Amino acid sequence: MILEYLLIIVFGGALLTYFLGKISSKLRNFFAVFISLTLIAIISCLYGRPLQKSYFHFLNLPLILRLDPFSWFFAIATQTITTLSIIFSLSYMKGKERLNFYYFSVLLVNAGMLGIVLSADLVSFYIFWEIMSWATFLLISYNRGPALAAGMKYIIMSIIGSTAMLIGIISLYVNCGSLNIAQIASFITQASSGYTLFILIAFCIAFGIKNALIPFHTWLPDAHSEAPTPFSAVLSGILIKMGTYGFILFMYAIAGLSVFLNLGGGSFHYILSLLAAITIIVPTFIAVLQDDAKRLLAWSSIAQVGYIILGITIGTSLGFLGGLFHFFNHAAFKALLFLGVGAIEYRTGTRDLNSMGGLIKKMPITFFCVLAGTLGLIGVPLTNGFVSKWLIYKALILGRHPFLAFIALFGTWGTILYSYKLIHNIFLGQLPEKFKNVKKIPVSMRFPILFLSLVVIAFGILPGIPLKVINTIAASFGFQPQNVTIWGIASETGVLNMVNIFAAISVALIFVWFLFRVGEKKLSIAQDNNYAAGAYIPKDKYHYTVEFYEPLFRMIKPYFKDFADEFYLLLVRGGRNLSDRLRKIYCGDLSFYITYIVLFLAILIILKLGLKLW
Amino acid sequence: MVTQVFEIIGAPILAFIIGIFFLGLFRKIIARVQWRYGPPIIQPFLDLIKLFHQRGFSHGPIFDWGIILSLTGSIVLILFIPFGGMCALSSSGGLLVILYIMLFAPLWFALSGGEGANPNISIGISRKFILALGYEVPFLFVLLTAMSYYKTISIVDIVNAQENFHWALFSPLFLSGIAYLMILPAILGVRPFDIAGAPQEISSGPAVEYGGRYLGLFQIEHAFSLFIGIALFVDLFLGGGGNPVTFFIKMTVVFILVVFIHAVFPRLRIEQALRYLWRWPVAFSLLGLILVLVMR
Question: Which of A21, A213, A496, B44 has its CA 20 to 30 A from that of A102?
């Protein structure tokens, strides 16, 4: 019963938010936050309580909702990120137009995502999937202008994905006679491997597009950078991970571990891993070349998705743990980074990395949070990203995939390059004259980013808390459970113990700090004091940020173009040319059409007469 | 437990002494190559005492905390590296953690420098990251080859597998060993790869704004990074060492080799360095990896 109420609350809440907005904007804001907090409370109370409920009959197919550890894990992550984004929106979106519509759409996306993770049959899955996709389209194109084009690109690719999914669903219905996920799973075990491959490819196209796996990624950079920033956090943090959810559902819940790993002689999962590896390496270096903060983060999202898919598809217990944990971590730190960049955009009005600098003096809390986010993104020890990446690397090395491991590790250096560029160009160096009066950000913006940085650090030191949940999920899919402790992981092939690392870093830090404190007191001086050696120098920008990695840029630029995007654009251009030719015939002028009809009749008559003559 | 505490305290102190000794040796050998007498071998230590007596200046909080955390990272890293039979944190994550903590020091150092407004800093940091990206490719191949060959991610196991003169340098890993030697000057930041520091060109790059205690901490950090780069080579390819003395002798031999390279080569430009690093060392290390994969 409670699952139905959950969906009723979120769908009803979305509608009610819209109408309350007609009365008072304060009431609407309060209600939207209230609804999402209620949902967090309900979902967290449902932990560890498996539920199943048939709620409707459609064409003799029961539509079922269910809750298991796997869907609970995704539901709580979804709800947390969306709630934080809504709280952030309160001040970020203040004064913008069509706000009722905005909150309605965000809650609708939230409803769609919750529906996806709760549905236990493919009809409800498909319906909620479409609700989510279309509501996302509304939000991506919210800003109009270039956002409309980005939204169009997104929805076209999304429809292609949905069509592939629909083909798969219809084929399953015809062959299996049921769309219940449990029944499909038992049907797949008897089906031929060719048919399983067909089903998996159809669904992988749909999920790959949503998950922005190369070569289906081209919608993402535009959509992420054009969407309203609080929604970009949802988009990157959790929405694209619905593809990950689908991947895991079809690979491990429906096809099953052994079927998936042996499909196509074991090559299918390896091809997916290779795609994931390409998804790591190419977007990482495209991100290094970006100058727009949100676009940089968008490309980085694609790259991090590569890590998640790589961990999941490698098919070992450690890899699965790492992949799913990285999903969770990425949701935390990427949402944090998007919100942080949004906070800066809110105060400075720009997200151009070349025109900022020195904001650490004006926005120290934002700096701290964004720093925590980038450290998580790189995977520095004592942040959550470290643990998940460690698990993925170890799975790759022990699974004898040194080249995949190389790509994953090398991607980390690329990550350092663009993360440092993000931090340095925004916060470090000199403060431009025009940002001298920038104020701190309001509380409703500070709370989400502080909360998320707490998550990043806390789960870096105590990774066992989420890993225990993930371990039960892995066990339910037939993986060998790992020996997870609250401090890390202890397996026979190697130990990760965060408490040792934490203790070592703390002790060393205290020691170095004392070393730093001895002797003369330090002197705080202006930035150009030492450089000018006391002489007068004109007030100007001296540190450089523009084209920060110029020598590298020159070397890699010819190789790191978005070839997939260019190919799709070629297709679009071809289609448009074809339509232009057709338009010359179908010109819309009635007299032409009449001419065509008369000509056609004349030909018919001639043929008829000709036939008769002969 | 008592030995572990002793190792945790002893390892950084030993690393400090060896690193400072290497800095002195470095100046002495270069002086002799150039037909000068050179400073006394304890000169870097005397410099440190002097620097800690001088007054440092700061540009802001991250300027301080960056250099503190950078040095912290190096000290923690030393606890993970086996040193002639002692390894303080042998069972906490192995070579993968080492790889990651190796990022710690340059990253925090770059963040610290970033607070300054001196153009030399940003040029130096940009070069440092690009150079690191360059040597990271062969370096990762080398480490992955070692991990695949010995089928472990623990560096202590790798050292133990090389006991009784089964040195990895004279095993199928020799190609990787050569590749590591080829990138060792880049890892240590000596000529021809002292591009990030480049004293005559960009006035020591990221360290240009440091004075007093800050410069002192930077020197210690530099000494540690010399120790780490060479100790890793000795552990991976020269069989570690049964006791600290043999380990130290092996390190000194490798270090003198590096100093000779430093003494004769001029500095490369960053593009030239990147091109070199992505060509020959990558070729050697890749061949080494393929060789190991084919053999196993």
Answer: A213
